[in-house]
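Record type: monomer structure entry
Structure origin: computed from sequence
Chain ID: A
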Amino acid sequence: RSCSFYLDSDVIEAGKINLCLDYHINKCNGPCEGLISQEKYNKMIKRVIQFLHGNTTDTEAFLIQQMQTESENLRYEDAAMVRDQLHAVRDFKERQRKVAADFEDRDVFALAREENLSVMVIVRIRQGRLFSREKISIIGNDEDEAILRSVITRFYMDGEFIPTEVALPFIPHDESGLLEMLRHKRSGTVMFSYPQRGEKAREIRIAYQNAQLLLGEWVLNRKKRKEFIPSSVAQLQMDLNLKAPPRRIEAFDISHLGGTNTVASMVYFEDGKPKKKEYRKFKIKTVTGIDDFAAIREVILRRYRRLQKESGKYPDLILVDGGKGQLSMAISALRELGLNYLSIVGLAKRLEEVYLPGQSDPQSVSKQSAGLFLLRRIRDEAHRFAITFQRAKRSKELTTSVFEIIPGIGKKRVQRLLIEYPDFRKLVESDLKQVSIRTGIPIALCELVKIQAQEVLKKS
């Protein structure tokens, strides 16, 4: 049944659950209204489990008997339906490949590897026929024996049926421990075999060929994904006449408040998608006042001088937020480092114009180009990241400098104040006694704190 109702005799007798559509379309036997006994229902479930384990003989015998019973009782339509089920089971059985001369159940394992990629194939043989094939993909550099042990453990711990024989290509790590575990779970005999010739060795070769085929498909798909270039990146290459697709793009932006707390951001995009673990923040050190040109030169110098020292990987394209002025300063920084061969562009905010090195006029790029949309998205992300950093830096400086200049107010008390009163207005409006109770700061100091908070609000 497809429902999840807990059925017991009290529920069935009380008739609390009505028959659903599944019963009326012959998808359920109606145990919720007692239309099938618990014994018959459990027998049916047992037959389903046996069939899923590859034992079709018992299923065929049951269907033949049921078909004869329906026919003898003159229920010919029901007999015809059972007949169709029997044909379906036999058709399924015929499609299973005959691989063994005996009729013993066993699982056959095989492993194929290429560098750190591995594929384990498990072929299930039931009553001499190839019943199913399972695949487990592994990434790692463990030894083959360790991989085999791990797969066997996972495969049978999650499964319900363990055959008496498991055919393996080589001896796994902790063979005796594995056998003990499987025998305990099965509550019976389990043996490992390592066939070298004959029918069982051929089964391992079949499993290994399957594993090699699946591994080859996996490696090929990974290679395709790695070499795949998004359409927006390909369009950007065409728009900017670049020699190679700009798969790795680093973008820079400057942010400040009236020339104070000047900071810079760098965001990193790969194949048109942001990789936030590669983002970087910069506090501008050599520039005072409003000078975005000098700030962009400083951050470009610092970023790529460090990459030179660390032998890092350079981007395919550098994006500077700004027009000809910012771009020329960034180029001069790259020239100083001997990196003027790197591709770099500037994107001006006002008209969304793209500037290239050595060109006084903006590059002719369609406003509907997917490449331009990508540049704008990257530029906007760099702007967002810079503003967030600048605000956090300004807020930190305001709160620490304002309160820590008060004698008796240290970092711990400032932290407590900010936790209880993140909004200065609430702090100013609160009663002194209440502030003292919530923060644990003496009332005399709380009065000085409120005065400082009022001064901050006036300036902001």
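Annotation 1: The chain has 16 helices and 13 strands.
Annotation 2: The CA atoms of residues 100 and 200 lie 8 Å apart.
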